[in-house]
Write a structure and sequence with these properties.
The protein is mainly beta. Helix content is 0%, strand content 48%. The protein has no helices and 18 strands. Strands 3, 8, 9, 11, 12, 13, 14, 15 and 16 form a 9-stranded mixed β-sheet that branches. Strands 2, 6, 7, 10, 17 and 18 form a 6-stranded mixed β-sheet that branches. It is globular, with a radius of gyration of 20 Å. The model is unreliable at 1-13 and 211-219 (pLDDT under 50).
């Protein structure tokens, strides 16, 4: 910028400066959207009860990350969250669980209720109660490192659909990844794959819920 102009002044005190040094001049540096590097825990506005044999679809919104990349050879230079979420521990005790991010946004029952924000991503989460009693859910764990990122010019950024099938009382559930966003998002184009290789086993068991219980059957 021109000396003395606002563009050449020092950044604000809270701004983060990044300096990358190359052996030769580069013109293939790009900024790309990315998903969070940890799972994100979303608290429902109020707990929901899912009857035995029933299911519900929720929509979770979370801030994207911004990745600074070199195109050839492909290399990630730096990445940072567009909006920094607070840390939270998700598990029954300090020795059983994982460090996650806590979302400040609620989950939505209808996709039209979710705000369209260019700096955020939407995830369709289906919760299926395969047990014999009602299931109550207060928090949901969305495993972003295992998800892919998609973009729709109509509805913004999306991830794969996540389906949880719950049979236990301990917050564990079978997880299935559909490797595509919900039909609400179409048409979409693929942006990037999961952080964890190919996303791991698309059919696995994870700690999916908290504040969860099943009611006893009436006798």
């Amino acid at each position: 910028g021109v000396p003395g102009s606002p563009q050449s002044e020092a950044p604000p005190a809270k701004a983060q400066q990044i300096t990358c040094v190359f052996g030769e001049s580069r013109n293939d540096i790009v900024f790309a959207p990315a998903l969070a590097d940890r799972s994100v825990i979303t608290r429902l506005t109020s707990p929901i009860r899912i009857l035995a044999g029933d299911e519900v679809r929720l929509y979770v919104i979370s801030p994207l990350w911004l990745r600074l990349e070199m195109a050839a050879p492909a290399r990630v230079l730096h990445e940072l969250p567009i909006f920094r979420l607070s840390d939270t521990w998700f598990g029954p005790m300090s020795t059983a669980g994982e460090l996650c991010y806590a979302s400040a946004a609620p989950a939505f029952l209808e996709v039209r209720e979710a705000p369209l924000r260019l700096h955020c991503v939407l995830t369709g989460v289906t919760i299926r109660n395969t047990g014999s009693a009602a299931l109550q859910v207060e928090k949901i764990n969305v495993p972003f490192p295992r998800l892919s990122l998609f973009y729709s010019p109509r509805t913004g950024f999306w991830t794969d659909v996540v389906t949880f099938e719950s049979r236990s009382e301990a917050g564990m559930a079978s997880m299935r990844l559909e490797r595509q966003p919900p039909t609400d998002a179409s048409p979409t184009q693929f942006v990037s794959g999961p952080r964890q290789g190919n996303g791991g086993d698309p059919n696995s068991v994870i700690r999916a819920f908290s504040a969860l219980f099943r009611e006893r059957n009436a006798t």
